[in-house]
Amino acid sequence: MTENDDARFPPAPVILLTGANGAVGLGISLRLLHQLSQPNQADVSRCNVGDCSPGTKPACFTVGGYEEEDFQSAYATPNGLTLLLGCRSRTKAEDARATLLRRLKRLFAKESADDQVVSAYTFIDRVTGQVETISFEIYRQRWLANLRIEFLELDLSDLSSIFRAVDVLKQRYGYISHLLLNAGGAAFIGLDWPKAIRGFCRNFLEAVTFPDYMLEGRSTETNDKLGHTWQLNVFGHYLLARLSLPLLSRAPTLGPARIIWTSSLDGMAKFFEPRDYQCLESLQGYKSTKYQVGLLGWAFNSVIQAHEAAAKKEKEMSGPQLVAPAAIHSLVAHPGIVAGNMFAHIIGVVLNYVMLIVFYFTRTILGSPHHVASPYKAGLVWTFASLGASPTDLLHGPSVQADVNQRPFRLGARCDRLGSEYVALEYSDEGQVDQRWFDQAHAEHLLDRCDQLYTVHARKHRIDTITKPT
């Protein structure tokens, strides 16, 4: 807890987001801010899973509206939120912060006064043990007063920057409740226009959903002697997640801590070459690394289990502790297809705007559920996955526990024709083998390589720290 926290309320969550100044990062951040600024979080509802388009009535709706369902997240608290924007540039982080606050104010202006009247925050007073209630207005005022959006210097293409960032987290915050691994990049150099035109003429929907005409150069090596695209998208996040496990296990919030890895719709097995896993020779490095993100995101649960087993053994040796370590879950999510700024430097402002129009046409006229277009709408996946009690509770199914433990799934953002967003569960065994987002053998191979590199660089960092002149 910080010095400004009210002891009656739950402590504030601390959320670290990488890639915070990109379109998807801003969409995730804004949606989290808006949801947690309210006493109740409708995004955690099971109504958000599956197609809730007009003309259908999901089981969780009744004639009078929602049936009784607890929309209040364990992470909602008048003690606010600490949102850490992990960026290389302080200027970009400050610009992102200003943008988020400006857009949040616009969302507040659109809220219904009637909804505010009926919405209240119910909590168990942590001092008296009594059940108490405060109004929407008081909750919002307290939450805004305790909101902190702060810059964390973090360069995933520099491993020493990751070690420094984790040291800052330990010293300044003491814990994190969520680690949202969203940053990404690639060496895109242009478009193959003849191939693009042929693709549009042959199958327009496939061409705008799974584009194969983006030209990508070979990845260079970083100063850490790793493939640049691979380190930025894959290993940098793996190292950050490994180093953050003690911080996540110290999260004092009621729900489990979360690690959510951002994969991509076109991250498929066919783009992965185990012998070139760092994508130094590949001309499809972005798609390969996004496939690898999905592999690691699910396989990382085994790393968490090993960490928890070691922590349990250490606890037994050191005697009983007052506070049990928080559970940690690792999940995989993707935003579907959104209009961002990743290709603006290649196609220019005008074509970037045309691309947005094409996305809306593809969704509205052709009925593509993948063209979410809006980063804010895509952010539903992250609020849904971040703010519920656990993956089991989020998914509300009798066989979900078995799925969570045995059948890999990821959460994908989708929309109906009219733009109503929802969350889709995408399982690893769906579709053709080379188009699947997960393969157990690939996951084990990659996890082994990452673990070896982690051991090497963690040892090197310890040696550098010891020998560094004071």
- Given as residue ranges, the uncertain stretches (5+ residues, pLDDT < 50) are 51-59, 61-68, 396-404
User: Separation of termini?
Assistant: 32 Å
Number of helices: 15
CATH class: Alpha Beta
How many β strands by DSSP?
14
Kindly name the structural category: alpha/beta
Summary, kept brief:
The protein has 15 helices and 14 strands. The chain is an alpha/beta fold.
Structure description:
Mean pLDDT is 87; it is low at 51-59, 61-68 and 396-404. The chain starts with 13 loop residues before the first strand and ends with a helix. Helix content is 45%, strand content 15%. It is built from 15 helices and 14 strands. With 470 residues, the chain is α/β, with parallel strands linked by helices. 42% of the residues are buried. It has helices at 23-36, 90-110, 113-118, 136-145, 159-172, 193-202, 204-209, 228-249, 285-318, 344-364, 375-378, 380-387, 391-395, 400-406, 440-467, and strands at 14-18, 61-62, 65-66, 82-87, 120-124, 131-135, 148-153, 178-181, 188-191, 214-216, 257-262, 328-334, 409-415, 421-427. The protein has a single domain, classed as NAD(P)-binding Rossmann-like Domain (Rossmann fold, 3-Layer(aba) Sandwich). Helix 1 (23-36) packs across helix 2, helix 5 (159-172) runs parallel beside helix 8 (228-249) and helix 9 crosses helix 15 (440-467). The strands form four sheets. It has an eight-stranded mixed β-sheet, with helices on both faces. A two-stranded antiparallel sheet has the order 2-3. A two-stranded antiparallel ribbon has the order 5-6.
